[in-house]
Please model this.
Amino acid sequence: MDEAQRRAKKNLTRGVYGALVAGSDRGVTVDDNVAAFGEIGLAPRVAGLSSTRELTTTVMGQELSFPVMISPTGVQAVHPEAEVAVARAAANRGITMGLSSFASKPLSEVVAANPRTFFQSYWVGTRDEMAARMQRAKDAGAVGMIVTLDWSFSNGRDWGSPYIPERINLEAVRRYAPQVLARPRWLWHFVKSGHLPDLTVPNLNAPGEPAPTFFEAYGQWMQSALPTWDDVRWLREHWGGPFMIKGITRVDDARRAVDVGASALSVSNHGGNNLDSTPASIRALPVIAEAVGSQIEIVLDGGVRRGSDVVKAVALGARAVMIGRAYLWGLAANGQAGVENVLDILRAGVDATVLGLGRSSIHDVTRDDLWLPPNFERRLGA
Model:
């Protein structure tokens, strides 16, 4: 995974790479998301190990060949094929695809590449606009919905982010020219594909309406009324199918997710891009799993870099994990093949860890297979 990140950094312009790794404020949460996994020890067995391991699981009715899902991320300007390449890679490796409503490719194209695609949405616009957006997602073939609640209106977010243009205009060309000259391969991939990086988001507006730019969509979102739990319940009822609430770090919020009838929840802090100093997702997972794990499916999002991280999350109560930056590095390093390589690395790591723990199935790993330091967990809202 470190090699994928190194190649991504080598291939991308400084600004595009910076947008991938930046977090909010001082980046405390970004760092903790990764570092917390390193604090968890494993308790291996040395004899009687299983010659075969079962790694499959299910989330929201969809089978995964191993417990990893593609987390929805916004405009993917790291590669011309963007979300379509990611969807194909996920389909080839037997896992589900999450598509952001701020994605750069239409949902219909992504579903064609991977029929097991979940559509993600923020609360943007009115109930009528949300209902119309959900209906378009259903019509396009989305098999489930993810509503993201772990992204607030913090103006201090992404202090580490570079300049990101709203459109590819003369000013953007002027400011990015030195970076492109230093990393010509990035632009060359787009030139060969026949178009420049696209900063519009085609999944928000109705057919026939012009697609807004990312920042126009962001402005529409910022002007929308903040959703209540009643709105979330209405959203779940209106969708009428598999429904995940993403962004839970507190036990009381997890219980509200159960109350509104969600199929699943994601323990997530938006990859450290929301309220800085929120604890790492893996620190919040055990308490949430203990409180509601018997009532709702739980996945974890944030900081996963190795197959052993996946197993640690499952042992602490998650059915699967969602990855974001990891597959984006693979995409930037080598397109679809790069994403497939990242998934292969993770799967191999999961298998090796389950083997070393002396288990025959990913479903057999438990907290007894881990060592947690004192005060590792964070009991938020408990």
Residues 325-356 form the longest helix (32 residues). The radius of gyration is 20 Å. The chain has a mean pLDDT of 92. The CA atoms of residues 149 and 247 lie 5 Å apart.
